[in-house]
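Hey, can you fold this?
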Amino acid sequence: MLDKETLYQAILERHSVRRYDSAPLDASTLTRIEEIVQQVQPLVPANRMDVLRRDHAIDEDLIIILDVYGRFISPPHALAPYIRGQEHLLVDLGYRVEQMAVRMAGLGVGSCYVGALRREQEVRERLGLPVQARIGAYLVFGQPATSLGGRAFNALISSVSGGSKRLPVTRIFFQGSFDHPASPPAGLAPLIEAARYAPSAVNAQPWRFLWRDGPALTCPHDQCQGSQADGRLYLFVKRENRRYGGGANVAYRLYDGGICMANVALAMEALDVPGAWALCEATDPQLPTHPADLAPLAMLTLDEPLA
């Protein structure tokens, strides 16, 4: 297990690695990664996730299927996580895979998502997966290249893809209603910062947050004076995003929303913030009013008032 400081640091410092040392990771590190995979937390416990691991990562025909020729150099390993079930499959899958990516980063292991939704059926056939399985992305991983050329290649690809360009907080966070963009309350700010650092396909950053204060809490103890009201944090995702394009790629908003939720949950673990995500249904009459171009995804309830 990572210590709490290392975990939060890993959330903020993890980035996509495109060039790797071709040597495989040592057996001890691979064992720790297997433990990470086994310990991921689900959003929907009834859903079943399985993970295939490939060493000597992506072979030539899979590179063609995934349309990533020239974008990766020598990744020695890859995980192919897939999920089966009835509800919120892509959200749940993104949530679980991001936990792996962040905890691997805390071990010093680099990784990168390789999206599979556009050619999901071909990938299923290639891997021999059940027809009902969903696979949102591969996670290639290994030791990042340490040569000057390797570091330059990773930096160049990141800048070209826009991976270092994050939306300002006032573009994604709203207080009370979507008419009021704002900076988050101090106690919530580290969680929203973790959300901002979540990766997304083509850096689409589809997430939007709405904070709704709850009824003020009263406490007879002096140390409670000045505490902010409790409340709920709602997560929405953009229904459409030009970066995704059309077709099957639009579903990345769900997978990426799950990734974002994982970063928040990991930040809560690192900062000892008690609370839990609950997935939302679009038909829930208690959902706050929101623009038509946003789809509700989840609600975070905090067990204690913000400090």
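Oh, and this one too while you're at it.
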Amino acid sequence: MAILKFRIYWEDDDSVYRDLVIKHTQSFLELQEIILKSFEFDNKHQATFYRSNDNWKRGKEITFEKYDKVYKVEPLLMAETTIGSEIRDPNQKFIYVYDFHKNWTFMVELINVNKDENQKLTYPSCLRSEGIGPSQYGTKGLINEKLAEIEEKYDINTSILADGYTEEGDEDTEETEANEDVEEENTPGEV
């Protein structure tokens, strides 16, 4: 029995990846479940795999179910398709798309084939986790004493700031400076 080792990269940051092992006789549905678990995503949305070439071009589709869209070629179903049946070369690649509204995309690359099964592992399994994965529903913070990435990206345009505020969020200083000038005039000073 062949044990396949895949590296799953998050499309937006290839330093964020998971190394997974799975038996060649297991299904794409099982591969999907371990991908979602390893990136801490839920299993509530539509998803599909595409067999790919070295240039990450989408080929044959392996989908969770047949969706309401027009297919050029009938897709395979994840639950009915074994991973080994779709391996065409020793560096086989797949593209995994999860949640068609958010369009989470992961690059799945076969990095090793081994004939020796590790009796201590339950397949499929995550062997290595590098980088903090994306947050499925928003930003991550400090959760269960585990530091997670907080992604807050703002493009502050000064023309849309509220009246009376500067980029730093402080009130406009013209009025404050005018008040300070009045205070200086009223303060007895040295002659």
